[in-house]
């Protein structure tokens, strides 16, 4: 098995995006998304039992649209930066995500992933066992609530996409992030107001809110599983290496083919972190050409559900552990 730095050079040849393929990816994402929204609103009079499944299906395409926005933030979807940035800003309105602010936070995540001394931006909050033990009762309780599945994958995503993304407090300095957020907010408010005027508040909430909340939960789940697995990699600044952290601190979430399609192949996350400029539609080809990468950090769908209990980094064992394992070790 080659070392992580060598892989970055090998993967460089997969970087070049195809404009034609990217346009096709946009079409097969946005057209079904719009059609499902319209059908869901049109069938509300027949019954919510028919409209809700259509809204849930729309959530899958909303996740896929976010995958396109994600590639744009890395400059991986189009050849030119302006095309990536402007399409990313447009999709950010539909995904309720201010593109420029998110791009900055996500770039920080890529630059610091797995570094114990540079946690705090673009990451799931993760404490070491010693840090958790050093907290007060209320500090431990807060962390336990934050890590509870109902908060992590339910309340948390709703708060993140509906409220937190509206104001970039503490994320960036200067006027530019605020301009990005406020412009996105204004565009969102304009579209929402237009839709409510056309179809009514009740219809808008019954269709769009379930789509948005489900897509948000799926997005947070994907991000969680990509780094919160037992044999992930964390290290203090002096021992940390960017390439090793990318390869061994990111999972290969080996999903069924249709789930890979809806999530933009982002489950091939170790390859993505080694070279974030590879368009998502080229990630499966990397695995076909280099099958040895299939087994690095591999998680199946069943494996991933077990990751929810892993909440603390044990610096002695160099793996994530559960609250119970940390208590027994003490």
Fill in the keyword field for this structure.
single chain; 330 residues; mainly alpha; 3-stranded mixed beta sheet; two-stranded parallel ribbon; 16 helices; 5 strands
Give the structure's gist in a few sentences:
The protein is mainly α and 330 residues long.
Explain how this protein is built.
With about 325 residues, the chain is mostly helical. About 65% of the residues lie in helices and about 5% in strands. The longest helix has 27 residues, at about 200-225. The protein is globular, with a radius of gyration of 20 Å. The strands form 2 sheets. The protein has a 3-stranded mixed sheet with strand order 1-4-5. Strands 2-3 form a two-stranded parallel ribbon. The relative contact order is 0.14. It has helices at about 5-10, 20-40, 50-75, 80-95, 100-110, 130-135, 135-145, 150-160, 175-200, 200-225, 240-250, 255-260, 270-275, 285-290, 300-305, 325-330, and strands at about 125-130, 250-255, 300, 310-315, 320.
Principal-axis shape equals: globular
Number of helices: 16
Percent helix among the residues? 55-70%
Instruction: Characterize the biggest β-sheet.
Output: 3 strands, mixed
Rg of Cα set:
20 Å
Tell me the β content: under 5%
Assembly state: single chain
Give the helices and strands as they follow along the chain: HHHHHEHHHHHHEHHHEHEEH
Flag low-confidence runs.
none
The separation of the N and C termini measures 36 Å
Q: How are the strands of the biggest sheet laid out side by side?
A: 1-4-5
- The structural class is mainly alpha
Summed over residues and divided by their number, the pLDDT gives a mean of 93
Q: Count every beta strand, where a strand is a DSSP E run of 2 or more residues.
A: 5
């Amino acid at each position: 098995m080659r070392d992580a730095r060598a892989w970055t050079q090998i993967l460089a040849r997969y970087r070049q995006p195809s404009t034609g393929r990217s346009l096709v990816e946009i079409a097969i994402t946005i057209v079904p998304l719009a059609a499902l929204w319209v059908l869901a609103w049109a069938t509300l009079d027949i019954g919510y039992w028919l409209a809700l499944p259509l809204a849930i299906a729309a959530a899958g395409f909303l996740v896929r649209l976010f995958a396109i926005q994600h590639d744009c933030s890395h400059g991986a979807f189009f050849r030119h930066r302006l095309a990536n940035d402007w399409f990313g800003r447009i999709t950010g309105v539909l995904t309720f995500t201010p593109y420029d602010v998110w791009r900055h936070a996500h770039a920080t995540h890529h630059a610091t992933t797995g570094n114990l001394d540079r946690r705090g931006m673009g990451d799931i909050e993760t404490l070491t066992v010693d840090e958790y033990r050093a907290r007060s009762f209320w500090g431990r309780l807060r962390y336990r609530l934050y890590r509870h599945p109902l908060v992590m994958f339910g309340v948390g995503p709703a708060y993140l996409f509906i409220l937190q993304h509206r104001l970039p407090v503490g994320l960036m300095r200067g006027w530019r992030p605020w301009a990005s957020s406020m412009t996105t907010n204004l565009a969102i408010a304009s579209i929402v107001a237009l839709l409510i005027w056309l179809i009514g508040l009740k219809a808008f909430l019954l269709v769009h809110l379930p789509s948005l909340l489900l897509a948000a939960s799926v997005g947070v789940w994907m991000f969680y599983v990509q780094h919160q697995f037992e044999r992930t990699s964390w290290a203090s600044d002096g021992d940390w290496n960017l390439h090793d952290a990318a390869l061994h601190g990111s999972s290969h979430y080996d999903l069924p083919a249709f789930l890979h399609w809806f999530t933009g192949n982002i489950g091939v996350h170790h390859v993505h972190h080694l070279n974030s400029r590879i368009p998502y539609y080229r990630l499966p080809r990397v695995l076909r050409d280099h099958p040895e990468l299939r087994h690095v950090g591999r998680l199946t769908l069943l494996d991933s559900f077990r990751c929810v209990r892993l909440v603390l980094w044990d610096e002695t064992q160099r793996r994530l552990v559960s609250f119970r394992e940390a208590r027994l070790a003490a």
